[in-house]
Structure formats: C-alpha cells, structure tokens
Fold this sequence. Notes:
With 406 residues, chain A is mainly α.
Amino acid sequence: MFTKSKNFDWTLFVLLLILLMMGVFAIYSASTTKIGDTYNVKNFWWKQAIFVIFVLLTLYFLFRIPFAVIDLLIVPAYIFSLLTLVVVLFLPTINGSHRWFQFGFLHFQPSEMAKLCTILMVAKIISKPYMGELSIMLRGFLVTLLPVALIIIEPDFGTTVVFCISLLAMFAAADIPFIYILLIVSPILSIITSFYLLYFIIFILLLIYLLIKYRLSWVGISIAVVINVFISLITPFIWQGLKTYQQNRILTFLDPTLDPLGAGYQIIQAKIAIGSGSILGKGFLLGTQKNMNFLPEHHTDFIFSVIGEEFGFVGSSILLLVFFMFLWRLSLAVGKLNVRERKIATAGIMAYLSFQIFINIGMNIGVVPTTGIPLPFISYGGSNLLINSLAVGMVMKYLLERGFMK
Amino acid sequence: MKTNLDPPNVFKIILAVLFLFLISSLFELQIIKGNYYHQIAERNFVRLNRIPATRGEIYDRNYKPVVINIPSLNLYLTPAKIKNVKSLMQFLQFNYGIDPAEVDSLVYNNRFRSYQDILIAENTDYDTMMRVSEDLNYYPSLNFKVETTRQYLIPNHFTGYVGRINADEYSRVKEEGYSINSSIGKTGLEKYYEVLLHGKDGNEIIQVDATGKSLNLFKNNLVQQPENGLSLVLTMDSDLQKYASSVFPGGVNGAIAVIDVKTGGILAYSSKPDFDQNMMMTKINKDDWNRISNDPNKPMLDRVIHGVYPPGSVFKALTASIGLERGVITQYSLDRPCTGGLMIGNRFFRCWSRAGHGSLSVEDALRVSCDVFFYDLSLKLNLDDFQKFVFANHLAQRTGIDLPNERQGLFPNTAWYKKHYGKYTGIIGPKVNLSIGQGEIQVSPLQICAYYAALANNGKWIRPHLLDRAIGNKTILYRDLNQKLVTQLPVSANTLRIIHEGLYKVVNAPGGTGGAARVEGADVYGKTGSAENHVGSPTHAWFVGYYVTDTPQIAVCVFMENAGHGGSSAAPIAGQIMRYYHDHIENNKTKMVAEK
Lengths: 406, 596
C-alpha cells in the first residue's frame, strides 16, 4: 500500500490498523444511547473515522518525504511546540486548566505535540558520539525540563509523568547504566517508602548493595544515601505541615474511593461498568451503565470501560493482547535499529505509548490514580490520535530507512 | 549478563510485567467479582422518589386556624440545563441576593447529578416572582415549583416554627423516613408534636439515568402513597389569645397565661415582646437575624415557661397554706403585730408598708400582703419540709406542659445553702425571704398560674396543656397520650377555704391590693405581687387570680418585668382579660346553651 520495500514493518502497521478500527467501533458504541427501542447516536464516531483517514494519509506522506527533511524539521518543531505551550497558558481555561486550543469544534492539545517533539529532540541531542554519561543526562534533562515546566503550570500532572518516563527509557537506550537510572528515581522511592520504616530500611540497604555492586565511588554512595535518608526524614514533616484539604487532595488522588461523589465517582462507576461485563459482556450497544450515562466521558478517557462492559473479559483481553503485541513489536524495533539517535527515539516513543496505555487501563479498572490521560488509538480525539500515529509512523520510517544509512 | 540486560530486553520484561498485572486485575474485576458488580449495576439506575406528606395544621378550640399550610413558590435550579453560568449567577444575585460563589459550589457539588433539582430559594414573594418569571425564558435551568410552607396566623411562642432539617436532626430521625430536604419542627408545638404533625412520606420507584433524569420506564406502578400528618386542635381560644396579647402594654416585657380551671387546658399563652415566626420561613437575612437575636428584650424568649422569676407576694398563698397545714397558725390567730418590720437576729426585715399593719389574721395578711406576718410564720417552719411542700404544689417543678425545654426554676433547701454559701451561714435569713417569694426562689409564670388554677379547683392540680386532640385519619385525645394528669395538692379543705377567703378579700375587700381586677357580675379571687429583683430597678409586677361565676372558670396570671407594683400594673390587665372572657366567651356559651 505505502511501499514495496521489504523493510516495511507490515506487522506493526496491521496492528496499528486493527487498533484504529477498534477505536472507531468502540466510539460508535460509546456515543450511542439505547434506551428501550430508541437509539440516540452522537456524531463522534464518524468524526473519528474521518480522523483515521486523515491520519493514514499523513502517514503516507511521512513515508514519502526524504528523511533529511524530517531531520531538519526536528529543532524548529521543538521550538514551535514550546511556543504553543506558552501561548495556551494565556487562553481561557477549559474544564479548569489551560490545556486546549479551540478551533471551532476541534480541540487541540499542544502538550500532545510537545511529547513527540521533545522525544525526537532529546534523541537528537544525546545521540552525538563520544558524549560522557553525565553530559547525556544533563542535556536530556534540560531539553525535557522546558516543556515539563510549562505543562505543570497548565496544570497537567499526568502528562509530565509521561515525559519523565520516556526520558528514562531514552537514557536506558543510550546505554546509561541502570544504576544511574535507579539513582534518579531513588528520591521518589524514598518519599514513598518513608511512611513505613521497615520498607525504607529495606530500600536503603538494597540501594547501597546495588551501588557497591556496580562499583560506584564511596563518595557517590555516601551522597546518594545521605540525600535519600534526608528526604525520607523530612517527608513526614512536610506531610504534617500540609493543610488538611491538601492532604485530602493527595489522598483522594491516590485512592479516589475516599470521595465517592467527587473524584471517586468516575472510578467507581467505571469499575461497576467493567465488573458487570463479566466474562462475555452485555453485548454491543447494550451496556447499561453506558446507556444510563453513569459514566461521564465514556468516549474519551473512560472508553475502556465501555469495551469492558459490552465485551466482557474476553473482549478486553483481546484488546490488551493487541496492545501487547503492538508494544512488543516496538521494543523489537529498538533492538533492530542501529543508528543511535533512532534507537533512542524509538525507545522513548515505545515507553510513552506503553505508559499511557497502562495508566489509562489501570485507571479504568481502579488500580492506578486518575489522570486525564486518554487511551492511545482508541479514545476519541483528533490531535491525540494524530500524534500517537505519527510517533508510530516515525518508528516505521526509521525501520524503512535501514540500510541506507549506517 | 550483558546481553540479557540489553535495553530492548528490559523493555520487554517491563511490558510483560505491566500487562500481566492488568490482565490479572481484569480477571479479578470481571470474573471473580463479576456477579457482585452486575448486581450493583442493576441497582444503580433504580431510584426512590419521595412524595412528601402534608404536614398537619393547627387550630384553636373552635377550629379557627392558627397555623396553616400555604402554597409556596420555591425556585429550583437544574444544573444540566444551565446555558451561561455567569449571567445566571448575576441574575440570582440581583433577584435573590445569592452569592455567586454559593451557586458555583452548588453546581460543582452536583456535577454528577445534574438533572436533580437544587432548591435555591423558598417562598418567593409576588413581586419577585413576577419579575423573575419574565426572564425565565432566558434561564431554562431555573423553574418554580409550587410546594407548601407554614403560615403562622398569630405571632406567639407556643406553636414554634419549622425549618429545614439539619445534620444532627437528620442523623437522629433518618430511620423514620425523613430526607435531607424534609422540614422538621424546630421549637414549640411544631417540635413537641413532630411525630403527629409530620406524617409519613410516600415513595415512587422510578428508573433514572446517572444525572437523575427519569426515564419513564415503569411509571404508575410501585407507588406508595404518603400518609398525611394529623392536625392539632388546641385548648387555646384565639379570640382570648389575641385580646390578651393586645391589652399588654407596649414596651413592657412579660407573660400572660390563662388556664381553664376545670380541664387544665391553656386558653391564652402570650409572651412579650413577640416576633413574627413567618420570617423564619424564608431565607432569613443576617441583619434581621442579628436584630432579633441581639435585641436586649429577647423577643425569642418564651417568658411563660422558659423565663423563671422570683414570684414575690403571689407566693404568700402557699406560705399561708403550709402555715395552716402544719398548725403554725390558725384562721383566727392574730400574730405578732406588724410595726413596719421585724428584727430577726441582728438583721431588720422590712415590711413593704413602713407604717406597719398592726395585728392581722391570715386572711387579712393576704389582703394587705403584710410581709411581717409571713416572716414570723416562716421562723416556725423547717426549710427542708418547706421545699417538699413547695414541690408537692408543683412550684419550682416542671409542670409537664406539652412544649419542649420547659424550665424548672428553683427552691433551695438546707443542703443547697450549705453547698453555695458554706457551712456556717445561718439559713434563717434566706428562709424569711423565701416566705414572701423573694431571694433564691425562681418560678415560671405558668407554674404560678397552674397553682392558682388548682387552688380554684379545690386543690385538684391538673397538668396544663395546649393540645386538646389530634385529628385526621385517626383521632387522638390529649389524655390518651398522658397519664397522671391530676394530682391533689397537700392541703385540707379547711385550709383551702381560708386561702379562698383571703384571696377574695385581696380583690374585693377594702384595703385589698388587687381591687383593679374586679369584674362586674362575677367573683374574682387573686393575689398581687411586686417582686424585687435587681437593686435599683423597679419590681416585677405580678397578678394571679381566678374568675368564678357558679363555679371557678379560668385562672389568669399576668407577669410584667420591672413594671412596678402588681396591684397597679398587673391587676388591671388581669381584670380586662377576665372581663373580656365574661362578656364575649362565657356569655356566648350561655347563649348557645339557651338556644339549644
């Protein structure tokens, strides 16, 4: 269809197509309300179908244009996405945060574009040969910090976590030793474990063991341990110093069921919908929770609950399997690619897609906190779909270009 | 080692772990707990819709309305239909003075129940309704519903008022079928007879979607009709009540109680100053509330049962009766002559008349209200015995009237003085003061009125009450609800006869202090009182008495805070009330009997 090259990853492409079709199918059900014999179909599904066609055309062009053009565009695109992140802060809020541009019925989320641009930019910057490990990490952090800082004041916590996860994956792909990555995340682990002394002691001992095993200098070990102990000591005091409502906000973020009519409402309703789907589900268009509108936003962030309710464990397992094969294929691509920049970028793209998929499904079944992250390729939304597909398109483009460049 | 921990392999391991976690969570949710969630999902869209019961009304003894239900225009907001929040907030602020922040939080808190109506304002007045209705087209989220509210036709302290249920009350009564939107009696009869008045709300089972919008799937079956509340018929006579309220002089705080001697039913019950309970029926604004609750005259205080005061000389009838009962005095015993005071120990106790009254019998001592006679009598009494006697006469004791939070008052005994004043203080001085109703003693006007009603009724004390019967789908009489309504005062017929004689002289004999209460065509018995309270302020004026034609009819108690002498301030008012009773009520009664 797109090319005759034997390097074209047909498996990845077909998996992508299957996901896109499943998305349109699920959105059709999610935007249909069937009560008694009356149907009420909202127009989301054919809008999504148009988006899909548009996305496929865009991929076609992406595969056709010379790679040098794309390479030239990375820096301007990164700068442009930073600019859009600044501009969006001055626009009126939608749903309580500055996240969207609005053109007529189209909503565009600049942080979506920033994700891909930042990954490509980081890959470009840190892939220069003969760079030291420290220099790689420093540059990676700097390039990521700019968009993250802008996104955190929108505010959009979930997206900033996506950035951090993909940065760590890129470090790993850039052959940064895992021990450094462990050091980067160790303060976060300290905060989490600081509430249970036993866990904290186990964590610190494990950290010291690993640091010694990987032959870090004694100075380095001491600094790492002191910083982690210090963080774990002050965390309880910072927690006590928070106002009760701030504590409650954090607690309900971690466990939404504490606020069943507020933050926990969606989670509880989503769990009821998915759980009541049982093994085979209630059937296409027949989800009662969906039809009675107990689930808000069921065509966007909570679309997985519609699938779970109407197709049951079997249907949702099939979706999970497709996702798994798709991501597996991406991780195979990391191994196949030899050009350092492309390998790193592919790792970043794979990590950011996996994380979003995991967080969204986990949120729907109530095992991870709620964040406003849609399900890639399935949830309704044009800009999201376009960027995720372009990201996969980039990987396929890399695979396609194999052999022409060393 | 190196090849195994290659980045792509690590990614694969992490992927596998994450997806195993998701699959196992899904397995637990859909297969292990699938049935459980299936049941929840079915219950999720069935709602109980409440059909509120109509609250019982309140009538006087002649079935004239006292408290009625009237239609009330309540404004509701349906958040799902809001078009423009900002203009809505401005609109509500302009017309109802509702804070925009309040609207904002209401809408936010109900964001997942956006088809459920939220009560915004109750009892919209006509002008606002006309003004708002014109613009209602622009605000489809607002709608008026006609519901009922209470109207209090007579400003008074005994009916009390209703209000929206609060969190405490709700947690106490939610088992009885109240909802968080229910009204509940807050004070007075509305509170005391809440169980009778409220009735039982009905239910309608409807299928709704998540926002609470009815889907009309199974209408008209599964309806449980509400059971309306019972209406109260009081012993109160609203004409007499209104008249008693109107003759009380303006600017004076006080209380009036009128009791039907034969039944114990209260005919009039007035506390001054009063306030209009209807203002509690709308969203009361802060200024009005502060004005009422910070008013030094305390218009919300029910002085008939919630105020307790020293009774002064009206208490002397009781001191005289214990003297006669204990044999300390007899009908004719002329005691120590009054020379304007009495030296007891090293303290001189003054009589109100500096000139003195000379030697007096008990009847004449009551007539002129001589203090020295009772001082002398009290010296021969035991204080603890005195307290028991007072309690046996239902003074400084709750009467048990059918109203909430009645105050008891106080009559001390020896132990009380020891506790409060230390071991070595003598109790003779206080006892002397108590004998004329001064000092630590505190009683409510209703207790005094009930006591005199019992004296009139040959010593048969009947618990004063406001309810005669509750009517509706069944009839409940007051006496069905209460046992032990009647007790006999611990006085002999002879004692009673002497006291009656004395009280008659107070009003009718020359030199009697209560002459102003006399009524043409009937006999009035009574006693005046001028109770000292704070040093320097005028005395509390009391008059309590009863009105007798063939038989004793009514007992009237008039109490006026710091209004001077009972004979000149309170007795004329009592006289007017009895005259009104004589002219309008008793004559009508005899006419009706004659026509039959």
